[in-house]
Amino acid sequence: MLRVLSMLLLGSALALSGCASKVDYGDAQARETVNTDFGSTDLQMIAAKMVDDMMVFPPIVQMTQNRRPVVFVDRIKNKTTEHVDTESITDTIQSKLINSGKFRFVDMSVVDRVRQQLDYQSDSGLVDPSTAAAMGRQIGAEMMMYGNFSSIVKRDGSTKDVYYKFTLKLLNIQTGIIEWTNEKEIRKTRSKSLFGL
Fold this sequence. Notes:
This protein is of the alpha/beta class. Helices cover 35% and strands 27% of the residues. A hairpin with a 5-residue loop joins strand 4 (159-172) and strand 5 (178-191).
């Protein structure tokens, strides 16, 4: 009886250890092909394509030759049926543009917190007036970056086809003229085997 119990405990321990999961670090730049949903590879391709195209567009090259225009990023409208973090796409594009040394950005998502800090510095009496940031000294944005993210999904039996289109525009706030625009298209197709594997 003791021998049978020992064997059962040993078998249970082996079964449990076989079910343990293992987590490894992967290459964040590696191609991700888990499914047809929008993923990290798509985000990286869109950001690289948009920034590369914008940086060689002749009017943008001329505009940024001797100065760094100030831009703010508006929301990207997600017109897909997926929950996609479009802010992550624009964050990556913004980072690449700032690191190019050609653009400066204002962050409209923190305006309320900046205003609270300015009020605190000027009104609380706790901040040395000689070091307090002055009201009315922020630089206004010259350009607005905005866009749309859409998809078309088609299914035919065991095949699923997803077409994504990402459109980005750069608008001159003073003139209302779109100075630059581009689109990036991605198509992903998945076919299931007869056995659903």
